[in-house]
């Protein structure tokens, strides 16, 4: 009965580590996506925020370690190698500690992160140009255009943020950011307009921002709504991963102790 139980534990631990290997590949891919993505709000964050850049490399590192850990766990479980199971236990414990540390740091720095993002977006809006002066500036502008068009928002707090734009303020025409323009359901949602557009049916030669055919709501509220809607899912996933990791620690200890006692029982007694 004991041998059968250990056999079940061994193969259950193998399947567990196979899933962990796949999870590591997903985490690694997510980190690479943050670094490589140039067409969404993530690009705005990772280009301007050193914190997100560091976080992306942390994801890549954790993903690689998780894949290595899953491989060690699979080999150690099938072949009952105590050394590999020990390394697996240490790696898993370190990852669990790292996850808890990152969660605590994120919780206590959430307000600071929100302030940094707001300042960063306002800087992009104020310095937005029809012809960007550098490739980095062009990437940021394209990413912000993509956000406004896809999320259907304008500015950060509201569309009035665009009245602080230098090019718009110096213009003698009534122009507005093209990516903020309201679109109908029949319009192609994948086409993102760039630069500034002129108000076609202006009531006078004077500049009235109220005549802009743009979304009045700022992107800050949209982002906060998205975070609130997905926070429960994110929390549930984190708790689920932590429980699975604790289960992996328990199973590896059980199998390691069984291998130790089995090896001891095989030693000839005189």
Automatic annotation (TrEMBL):
<feature type="transmembrane region" description="Helical">
    <location>
        <begin position="231"/>
        <end position="256"/>
    </location>
</feature>
<keyword id="KW-0812">Transmembrane</keyword>
<dbReference type="Pfam" id="PF00335">
    <property type="entry name" value="Tetraspanin"/>
</dbReference>
<dbReference type="InterPro" id="IPR008952">
    <property type="entry name" value="Tetraspanin_EC2_sf"/>
</dbReference>
<keyword id="KW-0564">Palmitate</keyword>
<dbReference type="InterPro" id="IPR018499">
    <property type="entry name" value="Tetraspanin/Peripherin"/>
</dbReference>
<protein>
    <recommendedName>
        <fullName>Tetraspanin</fullName>
    </recommendedName>
</protein>
<keyword id="KW-1003">Cell membrane</keyword>
<comment type="subunit">
    <text>Forms homooligomers. Interacts directly with IGSF8. Interacts with EGFR. Interacts with VEGFA and PDGFA. Interacts with ITGA4. Interacts with ITGA6; this interaction reduces ITGA6 cell surface expression. Interacts with ITGB1. Interacts with TLR4; this interaction inhibits TLR4-mediated signaling pathway. Interacts with TLR9. Interacts with PLAUR.</text>
</comment>
<feature type="transmembrane region" description="Helical">
    <location>
        <begin position="12"/>
        <end position="36"/>
    </location>
</feature>
<comment type="similarity">
    <text>Belongs to the tetraspanin (TM4SF) family.</text>
</comment>
<dbReference type="InterPro" id="IPR000301">
    <property type="entry name" value="Tetraspanin_animals"/>
</dbReference>
<feature type="disulfide bond">
    <location>
        <begin position="154"/>
        <end position="178"/>
    </location>
</feature>
<keyword id="KW-1133">Transmembrane helix</keyword>
<dbReference type="InterPro" id="IPR018503">
    <property type="entry name" value="Tetraspanin_CS"/>
</dbReference>
<keyword id="KW-0325">Glycoprotein</keyword>
<feature type="transmembrane region" description="Helical">
    <location>
        <begin position="56"/>
        <end position="78"/>
    </location>
</feature>
<keyword id="KW-0449">Lipoprotein</keyword>
<keyword id="KW-0472">Membrane</keyword>
<keyword id="KW-1015">Disulfide bond</keyword>
<dbReference type="GO" id="GO:0005886">
    <property type="term" value="C:plasma membrane"/>
</dbReference>
<feature type="transmembrane region" description="Helical">
    <location>
        <begin position="85"/>
        <end position="108"/>
    </location>
</feature>
């Amino acid at each position: 009965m004991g041998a059968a139980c250990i056999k079940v534990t061994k193969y259950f631990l193998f399947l567990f580590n196979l899933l962990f290997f796949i999870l590591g590949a997903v985490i690694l891919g997510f980190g690479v996506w943050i670094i490589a993505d140039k067409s969404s709000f993530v690009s705005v964050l990772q280009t301007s925020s050193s914190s997100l850049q560091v976080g992306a490399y942390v994801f890549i590192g954790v993903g690689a370690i998780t894949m290595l850990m899953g491989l060690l766990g699979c080999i150690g479980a099938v072949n009952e190698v105590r050394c590999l199971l020990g390394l697996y236990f240490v790696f898993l414990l370190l990852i669990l500690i790292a996850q808890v540390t990152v969660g605590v740091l994120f919780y206590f720095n959430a307000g600071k992160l929100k302030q940094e993002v707001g300042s960063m977006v306002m800087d992009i809006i104020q310095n937005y140009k029809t012809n960007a002066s550098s490739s980095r500036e062009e990437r940021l502008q394209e990413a912000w255009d993509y956000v406004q068009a896809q999320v259907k928002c304008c500015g950060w707090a509201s569309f009035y943020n665009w009245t602080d734009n230098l090019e718009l303020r110096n213009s003698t025409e009534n122009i507005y950011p093209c990516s903020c323009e309201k679109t109908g359901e029949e319009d192609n949602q994948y086409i993102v307009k760039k630069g500034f557009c002129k108000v076609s049916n202006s009531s006078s030669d004077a500049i009235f921002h109220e005549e802009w055919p743009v979304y009045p709501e700022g992107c800050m509220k949209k982002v906060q709504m998205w975070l609130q809607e997905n926070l429960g899912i994110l929390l549930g996933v984190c708790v689920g991963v932590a429980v699975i990791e604790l289960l992996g620690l328990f199973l590896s200890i059980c199998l390691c102790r069984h291998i130790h006692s089995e090896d001891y029982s095989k030693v000839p007694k005189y």
